[in-house]
Amino acid sequence: MTQKILVPVDESTTAQQTIDAVIKNRELLPQEILLLHVVDVHLAHRLVPDIQKSMVHDAAKKSGRRILEKLAEPFRAAGFEPQLRLELGAPGETILKVATEQDVDLVILGRHPGGGGFRDIMFGSVASQVVRALKCPVLLI
Reduced to 3 states, what is the DSSP secondary structure of residue 10? Predict the structure, then answer.
């Protein structure tokens, strides 16, 4: 049975470090991985009139697809066969949903610097939310 590995990605430096780490450890991972890019549209919903929300969603999806394809390129060049998944929503909740739906064996996730301590206790972070809620292992980069 092949392991299912989920790698959430975005355009951050942290995500790039995660991509580099996954590629560096290519020989330890299965060829097929699931790349997930979550477009957080919740903030936009508060700022955009209702009549324009579908337009914002369409633009976010189009931009998200371009980002996801761009981020998949180094994986393909390294010999991976990435499955691509684009979702709209809150990143933490969406990562949890996709990981559960896909019954993944491992999530490899970058942790943005500057979190921790009081900030995470009061507001949480995507990484801490995922680590606390998922039943599968989570590798933080």
Answer: coil
Both tokens of residue 12? 């951050």
DSSP state of 38: E
pLDDT (tens digit per residue) in 45-85: 666 777 777 887 888 899 999 999 999 999 999 999 999 99
Tokens of 67: 């980002």
pTM of the model as a whole: 0.86
**Residue 62 is encoded by which pair of tokens?**
């189009």
Q: Tokens 């975005």 label which residue?
A: 10
Residue 95, classified by CB atoms within 10 Å of its CB into exposed (0-12), middle (13-18) or buried (19+), is: buried
| Domains recognised in the chain with CATH numbers | 5-140 (3.40.50.620)
Token pair recorded at residue 125: 């972070």
